[in-house]
Amino acid sequence: MKLTDKTTNNITTEILIIGGGITGTSTAFFLTKAGHEVTLLERGELASEASGLNAGTLWQIGWDTSPDLSTTLSMGGLELFKMLQFELGYDIEFRQSGALKAIQTEEQLDFLQKEVQHLKSQGYSLEILTMRDAQSIEPELSSALSGCLLYPLGGSANPVKTTRALASAAQQRGTRILTNHEVSTIEYLDNGSYKVVTNKGIFQTKTLVLAAGPWCRNIGSMLSLHIPVFPVRGQMWSTGPVPPRLFHALGAAESTHFWHRNPFSNKDTPLELTHRGDVRLTRHLYGRQTRDGEIIFGGDRQLSNSKTPDEAGIEVNRNHVFEIFPFLRQFPIKRTWAGLMPFTQNLEPIIGKIPQHENLYIVTGLSSSGFEKGPMSGKLLAEYIHNAKASPVLFSADPSRQVTALAVDAD
Fold first, then answer.
1. Residue 84 falls within a domain, yes or no?
2. End-to-end alpha carbon distance in the chain
3. For residue 172, what are the domain limits?
């Protein structure tokens, strides 16, 4: 894949996408595949933000009897991972190994047994495992656990390779991809087109797509729009390469149980955070062993614009991992990193046409599930643009439900 970050002159393009993460590259791929002329701008390198910094875990639970948006994005995404790996021939390290969530208390077990019973009645695929059965497929699990929740359809893939594969597939079909192009201003012109100014060139387009994760809020303000996405920092740590010891996508039930019992959000705070301000509310955990042997874990969700990992939070997460996998005590931390995820107040994504301007589209707000749900989000948005009609499943993600005009201060 050949990318360019050179200074460009004025460029006119049919469709301009801002954002080179997994949703932007997916949207570009499917639009170009449908015959459109597409240019994609990325302010840094492809997959340099949350799309490339996440754990790469997948938590699909199957199709229910009446699929909603979350199910469609998750299970549709699973098919796209398979498409990239097996049909298009990209090595994205996809593996449908299943996923396991550790249950540490009897209270968590009781809660999940009821949840699983309800979800299975709707057609979903989940199972509660005894520790004997759980250790049979993940031998390093602590015997002190109360059980595990198995996601048979779950798995993992390499997030950087997946995003770059979508970009490569888009580029091969004609997408122009420009990296290190940071947008500074956007102007909505009288003729209904958009003038987008970057540090390396000026672009004009009839159709503009915002796919910039939490930075959609800042970009929206350039168009006098309030796009209510919050930057939520997730952070991770890893060991160095070790021989294979872990075989599933992995997580813990503590946060799921806490958020169920303590739902809280307001206009300044989205649901399902691990912190309120600097006060920890719960511990969240996810991770896996990568193909090159690194064991990676992470978990905190804290409102922040900083991508600097919090050492105290890393230590809390690491100690939580030790409770589930005691053998990891012997391995020091090799590296740490963090990225910003786009959360909305009620964790509802924003996908579709923004009504305040002509031919203005957005895909953001996928919270912590951007890797799992981003590819299908991009596909659905591309189909919306191409067909000039939204799929009914996108109703709950309609931007008109969340995006508003910025209030103008009176002088």
1. no
2. 51
3. 11-55+160-229+346-405
Q: Is residue 400 part of a domain?
A: yes
* Per-residue tokens: 85: 């790996």
Q: Which residue has the tokens 């009504």?
A: 355
d(CA 39, CA 166): 14
- For the whole model, what pTM was predicted? 0.96
Q: Distance (Å, rounded) from C-alpha 113 to C-alpha 200?
A: 55
- As given in the structure block, the two tokens for residue 226 are 């309030």
Does pLDDT of 115 surpass 90? yes
CA–CA separation, 193 and 206 (whole Å): 4
Please state, in angstroms and rounded to a whole number, the distance separating the CA atoms of residues 13 and 178. 13
Give the Cα separation of 157 and 93 in Å (integer): 5
- For 282, the 3-state DSSP assignment is coil
Element (H, E) at 155: strand 155-156
15: β partners? 38, 207
What b/e string do you get for 373-391 counting C-beta neighbours within 10 Å, with b at 16 or more?
bbbbbbbbbbbbbeeeebb
Res 4: pLDDT: 62
Q: Crossing angle for the helix pair 370-387 and 69-82, nearest 10 degrees?
A: 100
pLDDT at residue 92 is higher than 60: yes
Give me the CATH number covering residue 316: 3.30.9.10
Give the C-alpha separation, 52 to 208, whole Å: 24
Q: Quick one: pLDDT band at residue 7, thresholds 50, 70, 90?
A: low
Same domain, 209 and 266: no
Q: Which two tokens stand for residue 222?
A: 């350039």
- Give the pLDDT confidence of 39-68 residue by residue, as tens digits: 999 999 998 888 889 999 999 999 988 889
